[in-house]
Amino acid sequence: MKNTKEIEHRFNEPDREAVYRAIKLRRDMRHFKTDPVPPEILERLLLAFHQAPNVGLMQPWRIIRITENDIRNKISVIVEEERKKTAKALNERQKEFLQLKVEGILDCGELLIVALADDREKHIFGRRTLPDMDLASVACAIQNMWLAARAEGLGLGWVSLFDPDVLSELLEIPEGGEPVAILCLGHVEAFYSAPMLEEKNWVKGMPLEKIMFENKWQKT
Amino acid sequence: MKNTKEIEHRFNEPDREAVYRAIKLRRDMRHFKTDPVPPEILERLLLAFHQAPNVGLMQPWRIIRITENDIRNKISVIVEEERKKTAKALNERQKEFLQLKVEGILDCGELLIVALADDREKHIFGRRTLPDMDLASVACAIQNMWLAARAEGLGLGWVSLFDPDVLSELLEIPEGGEPVAILCLGHVEAFYSAPMLEEKNWVKGMPLEKIMFENKWQKT
């Protein structure tokens, strides 16, 4: 039998549904309107980001908010260079790839660069055998922001098409730090009804059953 | 002026608050009750996981659900071994570390191992310069599950204290695959009111201001 405390832990049905709805309707957005993001909403999204779980409580994340148009333009050029290189590396899908919109850097209301902090070696808790858990923490933080943005009616896109060394140089990210995300955040005309790469027939997702095993890995 | 469509994108206030509440109250749990997780709730949490953003829609994640007690016990031993090694590596904080509860593997209602799939090299989109974006996708999926679990009143803990090679051998994870999380999921007596590592004075978190820069990295 459940005790009172436990029932209290659970959100009521409309609140549970709201959480599931944010998860379901969140999209990796590439199409934005240029309207600015209200500062109080940005503040809430940054707090949501900062409340993420993080290995050994090391808070490995740093955010660089881009407010200068000149820097925004330079970031756009860096991504465009990598887009071309990715296209080449994709060989027979090159042409198809080049028709996809992969970022909204010049349109979105807010442009945020997320980087791993320098000076992470001293953090051993939970990272002795899996040092990349710092990146995992950063991803959890971005997912928090993504879901909160969806609830606010704002779109967010995580762009990873860039050379981290070139971006580090532009933003003066020190040795040991590493940019891992260019986040486009802003108003959108409409959210994609399915992931854009599915809508554009780039790829079709697998159903849940395909990724579930029991007790050991099964050959698929 | 905002158009109707845009207003429709935004969740109403109680629903927005529910999303922010899940983000705020989610904890990395180590203390569990042994009661089983109802199957219909587990199913919803797995779907939430599977709805996460993922680079190039590659769905790099696999989940191994542990239902055999013998395997659960062996996983517990693997984590205990790494706990001791981590303690040693922590030098002067060794004793303090050993007093922390770092996992609830033998108590939690559900034990799930999350792994990166093998055969990931062919996925280039968004990973040419940042191959670890697959891990980032997996972390987003775990964060989805974490928040949904909190809304359901269930605790989840991400344990990364293990040797991935030893765990791979136990679970027959093939070459190229990699376990990245032991997830303890289950009922809890109470959620920590602050991160457990703060409550236990292991570390104190930084405020948001400390991680925010503008236009370029600033020395802190």
Describe this protein with a few key phrases.
homodimer; 220 residues; alpha+beta; NADH Oxidase; four-stranded antiparallel beta sheet
Give your account of this protein's structure.
The structure is a homodimer of 220-residue chains. With 220 residues, chain A is of the alpha+beta class. Chain A is built from 8 helices and 5 strands. Chain A has a single domain (27-170, 179-189), classed as NADH Oxidase (3-Layer(aba) Sandwich), CATH 3.40.109.10. Helix content of chain A is 40%, strand content 14%. The first copy, chain A, has a 4-stranded antiparallel β-sheet, with helices on both faces. In chain A, helix 2 (13-25) packs across helix 6 and helix 3 (39-50) runs antiparallel to helix 6 (133-151). The longest helix of chain A has 21 residues, at 69-89. Chain A is globular and about 50 Å long. The mean pLDDT of chain A is 95. At the A-B interface, helix 1, helix 2, helix 3, strand 1 and helix 4 of A face helix 1, helix 2, helix 3, strand 1 and helix 4 of B. Strand 5 of chain A pairs parallel with strand 1 of chain B, so a sheet runs across the interface.
Largest interface, and how many residues on either side? A-B, 108 and 108 residues
Distance between the termini of chain A: 40 Å
| CATH topology-level name of chain A | NADH Oxidase
Total E-strand runs of chain A? 5
What is shown here, in short?
With 220 residues, chain A is of the alpha+beta class. Chain A has 8 helices and 5 strands, in the order αααβααβαβαβαβ. In chain A, 40% of the residues lie in helices and 14% in strands.
